[in-house]
Write a sequence for this structure.
């Protein structure tokens, strides 16, 4: 096998690899007044667009300058054997137009390639799937109300802890009260408390975990001997 035959075989195998997942295929032509048509798909090659980022990858073909490789030097560049084509600049850009299912705008290829127009009258680079990508759903951490009643008790007394996350939590726990794998809302009676105690409610969902705190104060009575006629302690 000659070197030339090896190169042809390598190109065919390389361009026959499956396209990236979560990407749209591009087809059609862009136009450069310097080098003519640039074709974005063929039997063994093509250019893909990442649906999330809009970045281009793969190969296009020009009969005058040969292969044009996208994303070789970053998402804002394409490369051909003689130089680079810039896809984004201060006053130009390659854009996705979902209404027309095509790419629009301009790229710049220096003095050799010049301006490359992605769409015009009777031609353009089309997107096979032009449905806008829905942004991912963001799940917020639980937001809960957490309180105790009563908040002041005598030594050895008990309080009731209440919490309500309004459907935002999958599971809750209060370690100080012995609660594990609790529901989104509920109540629990504390044990007999001998000292002021802080209770921490921890609730979680797919968005993360949130913590809330409430305190039950234990009041210890003070005894003293009343001094007659003065009304004070000694």
């Amino acid at each position: 096998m000659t070197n030339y035959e090896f190169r042809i075989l390598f190109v065919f195998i390389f361009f026959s690899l499956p396209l990236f997942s979560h990407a749209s295929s591009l087809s059609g032509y862009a136009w450069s007044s310097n080098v003519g048509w640039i074709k974005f798909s063929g039997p063994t090659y093509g250019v893909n667009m990442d649906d999330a980022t809009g970045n281009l990858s793969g190969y296009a073909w020009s009969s005058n300058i040969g292969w044009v490789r996208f994303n070789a030097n970053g998402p804002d560049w394409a490369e051909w054997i003689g130089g680079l084509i810039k896809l984004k600049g201060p006053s130009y850009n390659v854009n996705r137009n979902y209404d027309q299912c095509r790419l629009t705008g301009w790229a710049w290829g220096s003095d050799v390639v010049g301006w490359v127009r992605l769409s015009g009258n009777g031609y353009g680079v089309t997107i096979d799937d032009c449905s806008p990508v829905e942004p991912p759903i963001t799940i917020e951490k639980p937001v809960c109300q957490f309180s105790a009643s009563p908040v002041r008790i005598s030594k050895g007394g008990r309080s009731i802890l209440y919490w309500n996350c309004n459907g935002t939590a999958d599971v809750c726990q209060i370690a100080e009260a012995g609660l594990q794998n609790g529901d989104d809302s509920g109540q629990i009676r504390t044990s007999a408390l001998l000292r002021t105690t802080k209770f921490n409610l921890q609730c979680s969902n797919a968005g993360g975990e949130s913590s809330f705190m409430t305190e039950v104060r234990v009041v210890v009575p003070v005894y003293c001997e009343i001094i007659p006629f003065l009304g004070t302690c000694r």
Notes: Residues 1-21 have pLDDT under 50 and may be disordered. The chain has two helices and 24 strands. Helices lie at 3-15, 110-113. The radius of gyration is 35 Å.
